[in-house]
Amino acid sequence: MSLHDFWVSVRTGARLFAPQVIVDAPRLDSDFIERTLRSATLWLARGSVAGFDERDFHFLPDTERERLGQLVSAFQEIASGVNPTAPSTNDQVAQAHPLFRDIVGMLEFDRYEDAEAFQLGKKIEREIQTYRPRELAKLRFRTGLDHTGDPAIWIWAFLQDEAWDDEQFLASARQIDELLDPAARRVAPDRWPSLSFRSLAEEAEIAAAS
Q: At 68, phi and psi to the nearest 5?
């Protein structure tokens, strides 16, 4: 099993199917995750965390990796006691729900489209952490093949609204490009980095229309 298998297991268990365009994916805040998991309890099964191996998350800080391992272990223990031929009990759901909710939250499916994007994105964010400008609100990542068939990594940089006006945008975009492009090339030398910019206001408009 692998990070990819675990990624797919959690995403499938939570019924969070991959969007066609990650940049337009709805934000998975705690309320969204809560509503999704409350709508059905099919996620309460060992298969929802199948493939987990803490060693696959070597790129995460120790505290995050250990926290994820604890959540998965506790969830597996509860899921193992669920009768496969009967609905989960209210107590089982109440115990397992916050565990699976936090697992989903840690994987941030709205920011990383696939398992490799999660790994590479986390590494890139760590690379730029020291010099990350205030104007850079957040990043989203996707990996795949570009139109020529070569491996690529797409990065969407979301800027604070005040950095989106004509006077500041070019300077902010240049600074962020000079920071992200070499970081992406160091982390993923076999993938061509493609950087695009969005504003937080634009993201809010998309969310409101969805």
A: -60, -45
| pLDDT tens sequence across 126-180 | 999 999 999 999 999 999 999 999 999 999 999 998 887 767 888 899 999 999 9
Amino acid symbol at 165: D
Q: What are phi and psi of 44, to 5 degrees?
A: -80, 75
Name, in order, each residue with C-beta under 8 angstroms of 20's C-beta and a sequence gap of 6 or more. none
Q: Rounded to whole angstroms, how far apart are CA atoms 67 and 103?
A: 9
Please, where are the H alpha helices in the chain?
Answer: 3-13, 30-38, 62-80, 90-107, 115-128, 166-187, 200-209
Domains of the chain: 3-107 (no CATH), 115-209 (3.30.300.30)
| pLDDT (average), residues 88-96 | 94
Closest of 127, 125, 126, 135 to residue 199, by C-alpha: 135
Q: How far apart are the C-alpha atoms of 14 and 93, rounded to whole Å? A: 14
32 or 7: which leads in pLDDT:
7
Question: pTM, whole model, 2 decimals?
Answer: 0.89
Is residue 42 within 8 A of residue 16, CB to CB? The reply is no
Instruction: Check pLDDT > 90 for residue 32.
Output: no
Phi, psi (degrees; rounded to nearest 5) at 195: -110, 130
